[in-house]
Write a structure and sequence with these properties.
Elements (H helix, E strand, L loop, with lengths): L5 E2 L9 H12 L16 H18 L5 E6 L2 H20 L10 E6 L2 H13 L12 E7 L23 E4 L1 E2 L4 E2 L21 E4 L17 E5 L10 E6 L6 H7 L11 H6 L9 H17 L2 H25 L3 E3 L11 E6 L4 H11 L2 E2 L10 E4 L6 H13 L1
Parallel strand pairs: 1-13, 3-4, 3-5, 5-8, 8-9
Antiparallel strand pairs: 2-10, 6-7, 9-10, 11-12, 12-14
Helix pairs in contact: 1-7, 2-7, 3-4, 3-5, 8-10
The structure holds 4'-deoxy-4'-aminopyridoxal-5'-phosphate.
4'-deoxy-4'-aminopyridoxal-5'-phosphate (PMP) binds next to helix 3.
GO molecular function, one term: pyridoxal phosphate binding
InterPro entries: Aminotrans_V_dom, Pser_aminoTfrase, PyrdxlP-dep_Trfase, PyrdxlP-dep_Trfase_major, PyrdxlP-dep_Trfase_small
EC number: 2.6.1.52
Length: 403
């Protein structure tokens, strides 16, 4: 039964029980209509109320300023690796509409783990010139990276090298696989160095695995923030994109000027914004459940402050147990620097022949599920998203102490 299981999945991840119960009902018969939520028109008044309510609650929870559009897009975080590049290059091209010799801009990536690596690689791929020998569409740069440290820490402020004229700067707030997260405290030496990014250069953040886990520091300093739903928001399917409205540009006009890659219409933020995210059929079920989660977070979890407090307590409990076990030589915590540690994805390695398997099997017997680290890095990963309770985390901490 669900209540005997502690689900530490990295995503898709657990959702609040009351939300699931309500969603199950809505799947069969939405609000007394006799029709399930996935059987209603996405242009009808019922779905309009769902998506508009979700947007209003999201704006309230994260204090999203009015000069940002909130888009409900599809294709996951992976599609955003491409979409942010395409839209911001189109923006840059239109800013330089009258340049006779338009030069491909640099795009600056902060590479702190597997996901920012993938985003960077997509920018490299999409920069490939339209013909051999022709100008590339952009020049991707790595402005800072912790790859030499195997992505187990974050860069310090003076390790960033931003180019003054970049079309944008990109970072991943929480690296789901490696377990590093930029600290919420903007005074920390490991905080993202907003002040070092040259004035006017748009900042893009992948918030996929930390979205809604706590407030977004310096939200107004960002150009684009995006996040797939499947961690703290809802089921996979919908991806939230928060875009500063002046960056919503007609990519067709940019394409006509030349020097930019073609932009599929589904990736154009302006089209999504102009059509209130209903340019085509949206992932209605994912949006519906996300709307229920947002309502729940606002009303039952004391908003973002309550959520942040609970997540901090969970992280503290687990890292304390891990540090103690490490001091006793039982295991190795992957991220040493406290300010770089993720509160959402906690990674560690059990040393010794066969011990990791033993740990996982013992955990299974106690109801702990989905603790295996990502296949690319191995080890153990406990994901502590919003719906994971402090009791579950304490149970895991006790198990670690006794192991
Ligand atoms: N960015 C981050 C930080 C992620 O954790 C993930 C997936 N877990 C992605 C991007 C890719 O998202 P998707 O699988 O939705 O394409």
């Amino acid at each position: 039964a669900r209540d005997q299981i502690h689900n530490f999945a990295a995503g898709p991840s657990p959702l609040p029980q009351p939300v699931l119960e309500k969603a199950a009902q809505g799947l069969l018969n939405y609000d007394g209509t006799g029709i399930g939520v996935c059987e209603l028109s996405h242009r009808g008044k019922e779905f309009k109320a769902i998506i508009e309510g979700a947007e209003a609650n999201l704006r309230k929870l994260l204090e999203i300023p009015d000069n940002y559009a909130v888009l409900f897009s599809q294709g996951g975080g992976t599609t955003q690796f491409s979409s942010v590049f395409l839209n911001l290059l189109a923006y840059r091209r239109l800013q330089h509409a009258n340049d006779a010799d338009y030069a491909p801009p640099t795009v600056d990536y902060v590479v702190t783990g597997s996901w920012s690596s993938k985003a960077y690689q997509e920018a490299v791929r999409l920069s490939i010139p339209p013909a051999p020998g022709a100008k590339p569409f952009a020049e991707p740069r790595i402005a800072a990276t912790t790859k030499p440290a195997k992505f187990t820490t974050l860069p310090k402020a003076d390790e960033y090298d931003f180019s003054p004229e970049a079309a944008y700067v990109y970072y991943c707030e929480n690296e789901t696989i490696n377990g590093v997260e930029f600290p919420a405290d903007t005074q920390s030496p490991y905080a993202f160095p907003f002040d070092r990014v040259p004035e006017g250069v748009p900042i893009v953040a992948d918030y996929s695995s930390s979205f809604l886990s706590r407030p977004i520091p310096k939200i107004e300093r960002h150009a684009i923030i995006y996040a797939g739903a499947q961690k703290n928001l809802g089921p996979p399917g919908v991806t939230i994109v928060i875009v500063r409205k002046d960056l919503l540009v007609d990519t067709t006009e940019a394409m006509k000027l030349g020097g930019v890659p073609a932009v599929p219409i589904q990736s154009e933020f302006k089209t999504l914004a102009d059509n209130k995210s209903l340019y085509n059929t949206p992932p209605v079920f994912s949006i519906y459940v996300s709307a229920l989660v947002l309502e729940y977070l606002l009303n039952e979890r004391n908003g973002i402050a309550g959520i942040a407090e609970a997540n901090a307590a969970k992280g503290e409990a687990l890292y304390a147990a891990l540090d103690e076990a490490e001091a006793n030589g039982k295991l190795r915590v992957v991220v040493k620097e406290k300010d770089a540690r993720s509160l959402m994805n906690v990674t560690f390695v059990i040393e010794g022949e066969g011990r990791e398997k033993e740990f996982l099997e013992g955990g299974e017997a106690r109801g702990f599920r989905q603790l295996k680290g990502h296949r690319s890095v191995g080890g153990i990963r406990a994901s502590l998203y919003n719906a994971v309770t402090l009791d579950s985390v304490k149970a895991l901490a006790e198990y670690i102490k006794s192991f």
